[in-house]
Amino acid sequence: MSNIEASKKLAAYTAVDRHVKPEHRIIGIGSGSTVPYVVERIVQQGEEANKGRVFIPTGFQSKELIVSSKLALGDVDEYPTIDVTLDGADEVDYQLNCVKGGGACHLREKVLAEAANTFILVADYRKNVQYLGTNFVQGVPIEVVPFAYAKVLQNLHHILGSPNAVLRMAVKKAGPVVTDNGNFIIDAPFPREKMLDPYIIMAQIKMLTGVVEVGLFCRMAKAAYFGNEDGTVTVR
Ligand code: 5RP
């Protein structure tokens, strides 16, 4: 296992051990490559612990993960209050603001984060940054309704002052990436100064007509766990 993979596993296992408690019945499962370790550790809590629990996915990947792990599947429309949601992140700053949506799931991820009494982030050490935009060069993912994407791009260029935002294309540029909700994704890189208080830019983007959700999660997480290369875990 590579150092990065080991770091993801360490973060996920530590977070589950601290935050998925015997009394928790409704559990949100996020998306990305760190989340399988979350589910792996939850399964290790045993059949007795997982009996009567319901797991809510943030998208196709986590749904498959829940089903293939033989855990009970639910949906957020049935369970609008979740005990704890655990999810990955593309970057997390020292105030626990984060960028999400690298996997184009941030709309459902934000609904599950908001529904959760406790929202926990798990990631490897590369995601632990003082300011958003340090390593994640693709920028902030923005889910938009397809027919409005060109207008949103134009408006983003006004906000950004430069035409850097792009429509996310599928591998081999076969066409735009389409989300689980049938929408497109725009990736908008922002200058560092705009990320000092990401809440302001998040609110500005959310006001644009045609925008469904922004991959900026401001002050939603209770804690973030980062696995480090030396086998330690940084907790914020
Ligand atoms: C998907 C996400 C993921 O949680 C984020 O991209 C992190 O993924 P990984 O754990 O693979 O680095 O927001 O929309």
Automatic annotation (TrEMBL):
Protein family (similarity comment): Belongs to the ribose 5-phosphate isomerase family.
Protein name per its UniProtKB record: Ribose-5-phosphate isomerase
BP GO terms, sorted: D-ribose metabolic process; pentose-phosphate shunt, non-oxidative branch
Catalytic reaction(s) noted: aldehydo-D-ribose 5-phosphate = D-ribulose 5-phosphate
Native organism: Crucibulum laeve
The keyword Isomerase appears for this protein: yes
Entry keyword set: Isomerase
Record's keyword annotation contains Isomerase: yes
This enzyme's EC code(s): 5.3.1.6
